[in-house]
């Protein structure tokens, strides 16, 4: 009986030995099961002395993969050397969508950045559609053609439906032209008939529809440009994929 208990205790101890926990955590990490890998890496950190050198960084990566960015930033303080710590801290901020913080961490030295640090700064500008500044850090693809000028959109929008036509939204332009034109014609008709109440109502409707046509035309152009910017940003992401290893 004592022998059986001893054998069971040895098996249990070996199962939870630090090196086995580490191997299991590595397996989970490679499989992409980041929540489980995180738990095992943290258990390994509790059991092992000293730690395998890549564990603190892999804990950070697991936290980022599970969108636990505040914890990832706290864990990044364990990293070394300083240059590596700054790179991963900037990456954490980038993944969290805090692009100003990314640039603050990586670009505060004032010296030109290269490699993944420079790419992170450039992508942080690109994610904010600031392609002009992004070009200082990234090799950008040729810009997408077909953008609409908001000044031209404003001018075209003075004609009912004109802004929509300029943005390529012909269905919306026809609808806007018809509704503003109909309200205006009714207002003119009731003015001729000297029906003050109906004239006032239809004129008010015409003014509201006209204002809506101007706003809608400008908005259509902005949406058109935003769509092109999204396409361009996707191309930038594809051609400047991060490879932080």
What does this structure look like?
This protein is an all-alpha fold and 245 residues long. Among the domains are: 1-79, Alpha Horseshoe (Serine Threonine Protein Phosphatase 5, Tetratricopeptide repeat), CATH 1.25.40; 150-234. Helix content is 74%, strand content 0%. The chain is built from 13 helices and no strands. It has helices at 2-15, 18-31, 34-47, 55-65, 69-76, 82-95, 99-107, 115-127, 131-134, 150-157, 162-167, 170-192, 196-239. Helix 5 packs antiparallel against helix 6 (82-95), helix 6 (82-95) runs antiparallel to helix 7 (99-107) and helix 12 (170-192) packs antiparallel against helix 13 (196-239).
Q: What's a quick, concise take on this entry?
A:
This protein has helices at 2-15, 18-31, 34-47, 55-65, 69-76, 82-95, 99-107, 115-127, 131-134, 150-157, 162-167, 170-192, 196-239. With 245 residues, it is mainly α. Residues 1-12 have low confidence and may be disordered.
Largest sheet: none
Shape type: elongated
Q: Return the structural class.
A: mainly alpha
Q: How many individual β-strands?
A: 0
Q: Ranges with pLDDT <50 over ≥5 residues? A: 1-12
Number of helix segments? 13
Q: How much helix, percentage-wise, in residues?
A: over 70%
Measured by DSSP, the beta-strand proportion falls in under 5%
Radius of gyration, whole Å = 30 Å
Q: What pattern of helices and strands is seen along the backbone? A: HHHHHHHHHHHHH
Taking the alpha carbons of the first and last residues, their distance comes to 51 Å
Mean pLDDT, to the nearest integer, reads 86
């Amino acid at each position: 009986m004592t022998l059986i208990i001893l054998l069971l205790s040895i098996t249990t101890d070996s199962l939870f030995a630090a090196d086995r926990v580490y191997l299991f955590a590595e397996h989970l990490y490679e499989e992409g099961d980041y929540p489980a890998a995180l738990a095992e890496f943290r258990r390994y950190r509790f059991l092992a002395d000293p730690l395998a050198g890549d564990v603190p960084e892999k804990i950070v990566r697991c936290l980022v993969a599970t969108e636990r960015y505040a914890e990832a930033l706290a864990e990044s303080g364990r990293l070394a050397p300083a240059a590596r710590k700054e790179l991963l801290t900037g990456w954490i901020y980038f993944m969290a969508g805090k692009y100003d913080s990314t640039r603050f961490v990586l670009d505060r030295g004032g010296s030109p950045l290269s490699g993944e640090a420079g790419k992170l700064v450039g992508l942080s500008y690109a994610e904010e559609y600031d392609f002009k500044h992004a070009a200082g850090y990234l090799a950008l693809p040729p810009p997408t053609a077909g953008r609409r000028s908001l000044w031209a959109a404003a001018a075209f929008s003075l004609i009912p439906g004109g802004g929509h036509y300029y943005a390529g939204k012909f269905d919306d332009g026809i609808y806007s032209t018809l509704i503003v034109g109909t309200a205006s014609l009714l207002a003119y008709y009731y003015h001729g008939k000297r029906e003050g109440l109906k004239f006032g109502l239809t004129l008010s409707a015409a003014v509201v529809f006209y204002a809506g046509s101007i706003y809608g035309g400008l908005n259509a152009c902005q949406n058109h440009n935003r769509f092109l910017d999204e396409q361009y940003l996707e191309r930038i992401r594809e051609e400047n994929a991060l490879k932080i290893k």
